[in-house]
Amino acid sequence: MKIILADGSVIDCESVTLEPHFAIGCPDRAAFLSVWDRLTPENLDQIEIFNGSAFVAAFNACELVGTQTVNNYDGSLIGHFYLIGEPMAKTDPDYQTAYTIMTGETLA
Predict the structure, then answer these.
(1) Distances (CA, A) of 10 to 3, 24, 42, 49, 79
(2) CA-CA distance, 45 to 19, in Å (whole number)?
């Protein structure tokens, strides 16, 4: 999975949820901090989530509200980033399809 930031840059992710929360694998702490540095208010103004080339969801006006790291024995780590944001309009057919794919439910 991947997240595309407002500036067009891509963050490859181990996992992404629709909260939105995402996890990345990092070879070291410097790589984690490099991703964190890219999560500026301007870059979080709009994010898009993709699974491969398939669009999943988009969020506007995101804000980074928390981070967490899990250290591995080999010195690598998994970085977790927790965001809040406004989901794309629920009337958008792409959003409705993505919601159904991710949750197995349909929007009312």
Answers:
(1) 6, 12, 14, 10, 16
(2) 16
Determine the Cα–Cα distance for residues 99 and 79; give it in Å rounded to an integer. 25
For the whole model, what pTM was predicted?
Answer: 0.76
C-alpha angle 65-66-72 in degrees, rounded to nearest 5: 160
Give buried/exposed letters for 10-35 (b at 16+ CB in 10 A, else e). Answer: ebebeebeeebbbbbebeeeeebeeb
- Residue at token pair 């591995």: 72
Q: Which residue has the higher pLDDT, 93 or 61?
A: 61
* Mean pLDDT over the full length of the chain: 86
